[in-house]
Every structure is written in structure tokens, then in C-alpha cells.
Amino acid sequence: SYLNEVMIRNFDRTFEDIISQGWEVFIHPDDLPDALSRWHRCLQSKQQYLAEFRLKFSDGAYYWHLARAVPMIENGKVSFWLGTNTNIHQQKVNETIKDEFISIASHELKTPLTTIKGFFQLIKREVPLQTNLGNFVGKAERQLERLSRLIEDLLDVSKINAGKMVYNKENFNFSTLLADTVESIQHTTTTHQIELHSGCDIQFYGDQLRIEQVLINLLNNAIKYSPGSKKIVVRC
To answer: How far apart are the first and last CA of the chain?
Structure first.
């Protein structure tokens, strides 16, 4: 076994003391079950060990670390494990601050969004939907709905971190979505003319708002990265 001087200094214990007690003594009790479970699985599978846990230093405080270990295999058998512990405490602190900021900002955004929705409801009472203004109000409401969904996603930081986004799938006409998206982006630019040359008259099953966001990103990138051109051609 081997420990470098950094870990010995952080724990303020002798090399022999640390080795004799084992890592379990220094790992936070809440992190220990997962750390041990991962380690036992790696011993059986001979795969890389990867885990995050808090280690107790000599000052009595716990600090987040990223542990990695790979098996050194000779003649089909593991002769020893080579591992590292990287201090990621500041990174973890920054992530927590970021998550708190996103949560607070998302809550604050919901208030003006609700007010705007209310104003649109009042406008719809006064303006026939068949008019150009009524049509624009309807399109704006759909964009508000998309914004509302994005804010709801931001509120659930845990799902974002875990990569578990919620998809609301339904059947919709892709051609209609594409035409509406092109029209919406056209209203936001005076430098480019967006031409929809062909559409896809198909019924698509998926999350319409998510796919709309993809199309918006594609069109915005086309505008942003073609400053020498004045026309964007969309085909489907």
C-alpha cells in the first residue's frame, strides 16, 4: 500500500495509522454505503472504480473527493489496484450555489410569466382570433407555454443533474410546427430572409415543445454563423 504526503498531511495521521484503519474511518457515514457497494462490484467485475464521497480531514471538516482506481492485471489476475483521490470540494460547493441560484431565479420568473399570460387572456377577449393580431396573440401564447415548460425544468434541478428530463409526447403535424417556427424566427431578424422550400406533411409523435426548441436553435445558428449571407433556405 502507498499514500502520498498530501493525504498524510490532510489526515494528520501516520502512514501506518491510516493503512491500519482503512478508508472507511474517514469517509462520511452517509457516503460510505455507496462507496463500499461500488468497490465490491468493481472487485468482482475488475472494472474501474469511480465514486464521489466526503473525507474527514484533521480539522474535523469533510471535503468532497473523486476517487478513481484501476486494476493492474497480470496473467488474468489482479495484482494490485492503482487509485487516486482528487479534491473536488470547491467544485461541489460551486455546483450547490449554481443549483440554488437556478431554483431562485426560476421561481422569480414564474411571477411575471403568469402576469403576461393574464394579459394575453384579456387581449383575446377584445381581439377576434381570425385577425392578424389575434393570430399573433395565439403564437405568442404558444411561446409562453414553451417558456413555462423550460422554467419548470429549471425548477427541478435534481432531474437536470441526473439527466432525467420529462418528455410530454403527443401526435402533431410536423409541417405545421416547422412553418410556425420559421415564421416566429423571421419576426426576430431583419438581416436574413428565411425561405421554407418544402415541408414534411407527416404526423409526428414526440415532445412538440422540445423539437421546436431544436428547430429554433438550428435557425438561430444559421443566422448567427452566416453574416455574409442574406438568405436561409429550409427544406424538410
So the answer is: 62
